[in-house]
Design brief:
This protein is 67% helix and 3% strand. The chain contains 8 helices and 2 strands. InterPro entries: DUF6624.
């Protein structure tokens, strides 16, 4: 059997086992979910900049501690929703690029083991690259210009092949993603 298929079968087996098993660290899962809930509250409600700054700093500081103590909190430890919360919290730590880069490397290893989501990793790859002023790989980071038109926050590397890379990461084609952004915003 080819190494790719062995890796694929091992990844599927781990994902299936994790889906059926309870997280090994339910307290950390609950903490991550609570942190994400607060993060989303200050982002979606009309929170003051002071509240936003306070929550972002607290979450960033705590995520640094979590990564120090646990490595990447993946599916096995915190379940799918807990792992997604960890990703979102690192993704939103825009004032701490070093934390995002560290989380990216830890998450990359977790994805290789089938313990984290490859599509979440794609978003974090692009988030870090945008912060570094580099072209995006997957085209996940967009903004609106002053006239309200959507545009990528940085150019997309080899844009002709972006949909191939997106498919490999489990993402929809770029045109569909852009339509979703337009309809949501």
């Amino acid at each position: 059997m080819r190494p790719f298929l062995i890796s694929l079968f091992a990844t599927l087996a781990l994902i299936t086992a994790c889906a059926d098993a309870a997280p090994t660290d339910p307290a950390l899962r609950a903490e991550l979910l609570a942190m994400l809930e607060l993060d989303q509250e200050v982002r979606t409600l009309e929170a003051s900049q002071e509240d936003w700054d306070r929550v972002e700093k607290a979450n960033t500081d705590r995520m640094r501690q979590i990564l120090d103590q646990h490595g990447w909190p993946g599916y096995a430890a915190v379940g799918e929703d807990g792992a997604r919360a960890a990703w979102a919290l690192v993704q939103h730590a825009d004032r701490d690029l070093e934390l995002q880069k560290r989380g990216l490397e830890l998450m990359r290893r977790a994805v290789e083991k089938g313990d984290a989501d490859s599509s979440d990793l794609a978003f974090l790859v692009d988030r870090v690259r945008v912060a570094e002023g580099k072209p995006q790989v997957y085209g996940t980071q967009w903004e609106t210009d002053p006239q309200g038109a959507w545009r990528p926050r940085t150019p997309i590397e080899d844009e002709a092949k972006v949909d191939e890379r997106r498919a490999e990461a489990g993402l929809k084609p770029l045109a569909e993603y852009l339509e979703e952004l337009k309809s949501a915003g």
